[in-house]
Amino acid sequence: MTTPSSAPVPSGAGGVPRHRAAEIDVAEARKAFFLMVGFIALIWALQVANWADHYHLDATYGILPRSLGHLGDIFIAPFLHFSWDHIEGNSGPLFVFGLLAAYRGVVKFLGVTVIVAVTSGMAVWLFQSGSVLTVGASGLIFGYFGYVLSRGLFDRNLIDALAAVVMALSYAYILTVAIPGTPGVSWIGHLGGLAGGLACGWIFRTRRGVKQPGAGQPPGGTGQGQGGAPGTTVSPVGPGHPRAGLYQELGDLGL
Fold first, then answer.
1. What is the CB neighbour count within 10 angstroms for residue 116?
2. Which segments in the chain show pLDDT lower than 70?
3. Under a CB-based contact definition with an 8 Å cutoff, are residues 108 and 184 in contact?
4. Which of 157, 166, 190, 203 is the most exposed place for a label (fewest CB within 10 A)?
């Protein structure tokens, strides 16, 4: 006959039980998957409408350098493409990198998308030469890649960083079109998107908990022990706790 264990339930980040944390990750991954399916469906629906309208949407909503009338189109241009080959080439990496960017937090992903659209679009609007019209999701692709890579580094999550590198190698052709001078390709937009994605890795990094003043002190928080002697501390756990000794040592050090 066995007795119930009194051991504490293993917990993950933020004190959430590990099994519950796993559920949250799965739920976010599921939302990220359906979000990216909807994203791809949207750009293909727009492509059909654009093609049926003889690509007039590109001329109307594409980014035109230093044209005030097209400044707001930096938020629309990523959803449009010039041809079927253009959208086919972007759909695969957009889905993969978008999923990697979104599966740890859909709300953060939406923020990343807005920031990358701005940095990529503004780079084209400010620095693209001539009167070249620019549309396409490749700026977002580079932004999502940069975000996943830098998020892995800032959050010290090796899996995310390696996933970004492996997927980038799998879609190596998207890196070749980022080289300056590639005909018909806005490498400036790619560079702007990448810079925005790298910045988002820092902006949306996981914040480590900050110890609040008085944390770990007993009620009345004077830094005195039970006997009232200054400079002594009380362990925040009972003497039977497996980490009681560690807490006591940290308390003696003033931590």
1. 28
2. 1-24, 174-183, 208-255
3. no
4. 166
